[in-house]
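To whoever is on call:

I kicked off a structure prediction for a single chain this morning and the downstream step that reads the tokens threw a length-mismatch warning. I double-checked the sequence; it's 331 residues and nothing unusual in it as far as I can see. Pasting both halves so you can look.
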Amino acid sequence: MDAFKALWITKEEGAKKPNPAEWKDITIDDLSEGDVVVRVTHSTVNYKDGLAMAGNPGVLRKFPMVPGIDVIGEVVSSQSPDFKEGDAIIMNGFGVGEVHTGAYAKYARLKSEWLIKRPVGLSPARAAAIGTAGYTAMLCVMALERYGITPSHGPVAVSGAAGGVGSVAVSLLSKLGFHTIAITGRESETEFLKSLGAAEVLPRAEFSEAGRPFGKERWAGAVDVAGSHTLANLLAQTKYGGAVAACGLAQGADLPTTVMPFILRGVSLLGVDSVQAPIALRQEAYDRLLADLDMDKLDALSTTCKLDDVPEKTSAILKGEIRGRVIVEID
């Protein structure tokens, strides 16, 4: 194949941080090993992509690297019996864009065991709009459901509600009949969140500072993308027997709380990982997204950019300036 453009991140030996991402013409041979080559048509911008582009050493662990954790595209060659030329695929996580070259290029070379076939009826653009963030939101909702949380138990709160995971979680929970409480640091997004189905919108400032270890019972469950004080406050205000699904650390990796919510109210903290989740669970999540996500709302919370715009968009997502989902048109 001819050379093609990619975002390329390198690191000098002994340096603490990688070099800034640059555009470079590369070939298939520059990509990580894999048994399936995919022509990438779409990707997206996630918080983790922002961290990678900023050179966060906790994300980027191998160099040189093509960032981009979501791959949506079409198989152009395969050594696997499970995939053939022309198959439409989706890939989220598995260290792609971190330790294995990722999506911000015309082609990706991937391991077949990481791929799922794009469901019939789900367009490439909508698959990208869902991306890791939307798929993670579905995993969080499924975790709450498995725990036994239903709309009859009470409200469910969502932190980071105007972001990628949060906006999809609000849409999903409201469609499933939950009284959904959106928590955001952007008051200007109140009407947007209500259009997605939020019954209430609360300010992030109420949760982002140290609070009481044990508070008034306010919700039966929550989806948290923030960690740190936000997660501690959500736990402290969860009703007896409730649960919080935690999937992010946008505020911090610490958890400054006490055992009181756990031993006095029987509250559970449900960890949700989207990176290494097994294929069967991923397939279930996408099946549920097709059934339970309002696609008109998905379109409303999504914007589209070109591959050339990725550096600007990844910088903006770290500043909290991105609403909903950003679809990247690669091809």
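Update from on-call: the warning came from a stale cache, not from the record. Cleared it. Sanity check on the structure: The first helix runs from residue 47 to 53.
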